[in-house]
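Title: Prediction job returns without error message
Component: structure pipeline
Severity: low
Priority: P3
Assignee: unassigned

Description:
Job completed but the reporter wants confirmation the result is attached to the right record. Sequence as submitted:
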Amino acid sequence: MTDIIVGIFAFLGTVFVFLAAVGMIRMPDTYLRISVTTKAATLGIGLLMLAGAIYSNDIAITAKVLAIILFILLTAPVSAHLIGRTSYYSGVKLWKDSVMDDLKGKYNASTEVLHSDMKNASEGPSDKKEQESN
């Protein structure tokens, strides 16, 4: 019975990692590639590691594997977000059929300031300090 469960987890993990690889090839821009790869590869690696933990049948190995899976689940989305944000700031263009650009008009490339709302998009932090001192 354990072998069947291990086989199912390993197969599903392999399928998700394969889908991540296909997504890297098929997606038209950097941002979609990051999205597809992060989700599919994280789930795939987690399932493969879980299959290994079940197969080992050792509590110490299982604890380490669960800690690694938790670490991957916590860090993969953060690193993908930072890679995507850096790509945007570096000027990597969105795909022509992208539906929306949430950061359009909020990021000033010359001052490298990202504004949280559209009302203050024209003023940077240094502009506010100058106005307060006058």
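Comment from assignee: result matches the submitted record. The first helix runs from residue 2 to 26.
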